[in-house]
């Protein structure tokens, strides 16, 4: 299964929905990624794909400093799962892979 591409994510948190973009690339068997959101570009850590299960960590500073752990299932161009920040409750994550370039006007 390939997860290469740019993914639009929606994270349902206690403070409302947060939109983010994740770029994933696989080169020579190595999976790398970066997340974009809230004015930050954050490298993904501990990135792992096991069958349809994709996991990663990331540290953010906006809207507050948090260490996040993502655990999602990928089905084609759709992903669903959770994001967890420490002792806070898990947040629902949904996402879609971009299939065409998006243009902003």
What does the model show?
- Strands 4-3-2-1-9-8-7-6-5 form a nine-stranded antiparallel sheet, with no helix packed on it.
- The chain has one domain: Calycin beta-barrel core domain (Lipocalin), CATH 2.40.128.
- Helices cover 0% and strands 69% of the residues.
- It contains no helices and nine strands.
- The radius of gyration is 13 Å and the shape is globular.
- The relative contact order is 0.21.
- The chain is mainly β and 105 residues long.
Largest sheet: 9 strands, antiparallel
Low-pLDDT ranges: none
**Could you tell me the mean pLDDT?**
92
Oligomer: single chain
CATH architecture annotation name = Beta Barrel
Instruction: Tell me the CATH topology.
Output: Lipocalin
Cα(first) to Cα(last) distance is: 34 Å
CATH homologous superfamily assignment: Calycin beta-barrel core domain
Helix content: under 10%
Strand fraction: over 45%
The number of helices is 0
Q: How many domains in all?
A: 1
Query: Strand order within the widest sheet?
Result: 4-3-2-1-9-8-7-6-5
**Nearest-angstrom radius of gyration?**
13 Å
What is the topology?
Elements: E1 5-13, E2 16-27, E3 30-37, E4 40-43, E5 45-50, E6 53-60, E7 66-75, E8 78-85, E9 91-97
Antiparallel strand pairs: 1-2, 1-9, 2-3, 3-4, 5-6, 6-7, 7-8, 8-9
Task: Please summarize what this structure is.
This protein has 105 residues and is mostly beta strands. It has strands at residues 5-13, 16-27, 30-37, 40-43, 45-50, 53-60, 66-75, 78-85, 91-97.
């Amino acid at each position: 299964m390939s997860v290469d591409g740019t993914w639009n994510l929606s994270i349902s948190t206690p403070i409302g929905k947060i939109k983010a973009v994740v770029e994933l690339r696989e080169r020579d068997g190595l999976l790398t990624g970066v997340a974009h959101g809230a004015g930050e570009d954050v490298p993904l850590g501990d990135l792992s794909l096991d069958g349809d299960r994709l996991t990663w960590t990331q540290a953010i500073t906006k809207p507050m400093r948090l260490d996040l752990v993502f655990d999602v299932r990928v089905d084609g161009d759709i992903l669903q799962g959770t994001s967890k920040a420490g002792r806070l409750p898990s947040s629902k994550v949904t996402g879609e892979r971009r299939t065409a370039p998006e243009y902003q006007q």
